[in-house]
Amino acid sequence: MNETPAHYTRTAIALHWVLALMIFIAFPVGLYMVDLRLSPEKLQLYSWHKWAGIAILVLALIRLLWRATHRPPALPASMKRIEQIAAHAAHHLLYVLMIAVPLVGWMMSSAKGFPVVWFGLVPLPDLVSKNKELGDLLGEVHELLAWGMALIVIAHAAAAIKHHFLARDGILARMLPFLK
Ligand code: HEM
Ligand code: HEM
After folding, report:
1. Which domains does the chain show, CATH number per domain?
2. Residue in 42, 96, 142, 147 to alter for ligand 1 test, most ligand atoms within 8 A of Cβ
3. What's the mean pLDDT when you consider all of the chain?
4. How far does the centroid of ligand 1 lie from the alpha carbon of residue 31, in Å?
5. If you measure from the C-alpha of residue 160 to the centroid of ligand 1, how many angstroms do you get, rounded to a whole number?
6. Cβ of residue 56 lying under 6 Å from some atom of ligand 2
7. pLDDT tens track for 149-165
8. 50-68 tens-digit pLDDT
9. CA distance 1 to 9
10. Which residue among 49, 95, 101 has the greatest number of ligand 1 atoms within 8 angstroms of its CB, and so is best to mutate?
11. What is the pTM of this model?
12. Other CB atoms closer than 10 Å to residue 97's CB: what's the count?
């Protein structure tokens, strides 16, 4: 953890894309399922959303541990100071939200009195006791944080694409090595 490496590790790259894919699925499923009328389909989607969300939480914790023990490569010196600050801020916020969004989702489920049985097999403990007002509030927070994450992801992906086509500094290829 002394020298700044030239590359992301394969593990960091794999975790980045697996998590991105899972978040890209969990988000629209969340939006779609809340507007359905009460039906077996709605309950099934709620279960899948919660299972995927807990899997995201577990992978995000592993990713955070990996990140804490493996330095990322430095940003190119050609980037302005303000761009470097923005990139680092976005990355930090994304790490926080990868944990906070599913954690608040889990707390909300507990508060609303719907315990999480992960993949229908592993009963998870309730994080807070049943309380309707708290459940509704945590639902609002879950929605707000998820939208906040979506906005940062859009800016983050747009920046990566701009780096690839305009700055041509190889940043996108660090996360997508087949582009090299
Ligand atoms: C990164 C992971 C997650 C993302 C991106 C995500 C995203 C979303 C979104 C966009 C909604 C719709 C919000 C609305 O329009 O009201 C939603 C709803 C919901 N999410 Fe998540 N979620 C995640 C993880 C979780 C987890 C881990 C749980 C619980 C274990 C959970 C439980 C719920 C529930 C119960 C709702 C419906 C709330 C309601 O009926 O008002 N979510 N989620
Ligand atoms: C839910 C979706 C996504 C999340 C949560 C996410 C999160 C992150 C985080 C936290 C980092 C920082 C890694 C580190 O240095 O520790 C990162 C790096 C990166 N991401 Fe994403 N990302 C997502 C989607 C995308 C997409 C769609 C693209 C491309 C279009 C992309 C391109 C990149 C690139 C190129 C880097 C490396 C930046 C560098 O070399 O400094 N990401 N991502």
Report:
1. 10-179 (1.20.950)
2. 142
3. 95
4. 8
5. 27
6. no
7. 999 999 999 999 999 99
8. 999 999 999 999 999 999 9
9. 13
10. 49
11. 0.96
12. 20
d(CA 90, CA 84): 10
| Euclidean distance between CA atoms 49 and 123, whole angstroms | 16
Nearest CA to ligand 2 atom 24: 20
Q: Which helix or strand (DSSP H or E) is residue 12 part of?
A: helix 10-34
The amino acid present at 78, given as its one-letter code, is: S
Q: What are 38's two structure tokens?
A: 């009460």
Ligand at shortest distance from the CA of 152? 2
Contact 109, 50 (CB under 8 A): yes
Q: Rounded distance, CA 171 to CA 163, Å?
A: 6
